[in-house]
Design goal:
- This protein is an alpha+beta fold.
- The chain has helices spanning 11-16, 21-24, 46-54, 65-72, 118-126, 131-143, 149-157, 161-171, 181-192, 237-252, 262-266, 269-282, 294-297; strands spanning 9-10, 29-33, 36-39, 62-63, 82-87, 93-95, 98-103, 108-110, 113-115, 199-205, 211-219, 224-228, 256-260.
- A 4-stranded mixed β-sheet has the order 4-5-7-6. A 4-stranded mixed β-sheet has the order 10-11-12-13, sandwiched between helices.
- Helix 10 (237-252) links the parallel strand 12 (224-228) and strand 13.
- Helix 4 crosses helix 5 (118-126) and helix 7 runs antiparallel to helix 8 (161-171).
- The longest helix has 16 residues, at 237-252.
- The termini are far apart.
- 36% of the residues are buried.
Length: 301
Amino acid sequence: MAFNPKLPFRARDALAAGLTRRALASSRFRRLLPGVYVDARMPVTPLLEARAVMQLLPVDGFVSHHTAARVLGGVVPHDENLHASVPAHRNRSRKLGLQVHRSTRTPVTFDGVRTTSPTATFIDLAGVLGLVDTVVLGDSLVRKGLASPARLVRAAASAPDRLRTRAVRAAALVRARVDSPMETRTRLLLLLAGLPEPQIDIEFRDDHGIVLRRVDMGYREARLGIEYDGRHHATVVSQWEGDITRREEFDLRDWRLVTLVAKDIYRTPSATLERVVAAMRSRGMQVPPLRDEWRAHFPGR
């Protein structure tokens, strides 16, 4: 065959190469988009989906928005459609599972796929996502080494008028060294409530400069740490014992740790803020009156 079934291919090309319609409709192949298939044994990754999208685009088209973010390794919410863009002189369109936008962006090539650049992807999605999800994306791109907070701030300042306000706000909240989306959400809950911004990734080193322990975020002078724990529970004895030892080490250093889990962010953000405020006051911190902006982004359940 002239086509490689391990890569997304157009049905018409497969038929021209001798594959029958019956074979194409069999369990041997998976349909990714209308008229685009791949060997069913291939795992569906963001890169594979992007290559499928490229099969339906003109030569000057490129993936964008959510699809570009995932190809780049950025974190974005699920979207039912794949996304692409074409130059402004072409007509945008929508096919089942694919939304095509018009764009003036100059694409880059990433893993062999034409895509919007990391900064352009961030700006485009600032107009689509909420503030928290946009900052999560920005933090994840910075973590990947594909952008920096300063670069995102500069790009946002020169964004198109319809995107600029939202992009500038989100870019100003992007930080380096954030390990996970939930750490971003934890930090934003505090900031949008008007609490002091915590230092990220606090390190504890020995006399030789070797890092012994880390805390996700916190206030070093007050010896108050705030951590997000993504585990539902300690699944093995050694993990549980390690947690006890770690907690005792922080007790010896006179550090207070506030540990949060998913429900604290998604279900009970108000109670979470009360916990953090109480911990701040117990460490002698001055706590400003809380603002209500957080409620629009963390409604709880």
